[in-house]
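Archive maintenance. Older records in this collection stored only the sequence; we are now back-filling the structure field for every entry so that each record is complete. The fields below show one back-filled record exactly as it appears after the update. Entries are processed alphabetically, and GTP cyclohydrolase-2 is next in the queue.

ARCHIVE ENTRY
Title: GTP cyclohydrolase-2
Organism field: Granulicella aggregans
Length field: 212
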Amino acid sequence: MPFESVRQVANADFPTRWGHFRIYGFEGIIDHPESCNSEIAAPLKRVESAVALVMGDVHSEPPIVRIHSQCLTGDVFHSLRCDCRQQLELALATIADKGAGILLYEQQEGRGIGLMAKLRAYELQDRGRDTIEANLELGFKADCRQFELPAEMLKLLGVKAVRLMTNNPEKVEALVEAGIDVVERISADVPSEPTFEKYLQVKREKMGHLVG
Ligand SMILES: Nc1nc2c(ncn2[C@@H]2O[C@H](COP(=O)(O)OP(=O)(O)OP(=O)(O)O)[C@@H](O)[C@H]2O)c(=O)[nH]1
Ligand SMILES: [Zn+2]
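Back-filled structure field:
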């Protein structure tokens, strides 16, 4: 277990356009993290933090849970290079509709390669590479994320079983491996746009995501 001492650091009121949540901050230390880039050594320890938006009763039955990976370009600027913003809205709207659920927002920008590297990957994609080829050309793995922190956050929130909104089988596997029961997978499909059709195709054909 590479994560040490995950702890809650904040818990506050959080009104949004979708409804009223509580916002929680969590942080933990990863001991000896793996390097994601063959040319960059990893530090001995790394602090990671993530946020949970919690609405309603999440303990009487397995709540809807979304693990959303940070995408500044999509989440903040509504980029149409990817489907992230639409998925974020879908998750918040679905939770609000049900009146209960949890959005875990983890800060592994660009599938964990970081914002500047993601922008450099965009440059390579503009020259014809797909998302995976671009990551590899920059020395990174195709996907550098791990989902132990969200799993630990669920445990600290007292949630042992979830209905997980995702198309990514790795998220399901990661939670199950960490001891969280995934009783149902809810699709995270959003309407496709011509600007991210290829992005979705690569997720489906090369990353094994259950898109569409
Ligand atoms: N490296 C890289 N990351 C990207 C790119 N476009 C979006 N991302 C990141 O991809 C992450 C979202 O991952 P996705 O593969 O779209 O979806 P997922 O979270 O694995 O799966 P779902 O739960 O089904 O949404 C976010 O961290 C984005 O910042 C890109 O071109 N290159
Ligand atoms: Zn995105």
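Update note: The beta strands are 3-16, 19-31, 45-55, 64-69, 101-106, 161-165, 181-186. The chain has a mean pLDDT of 95.
Entry marked complete.
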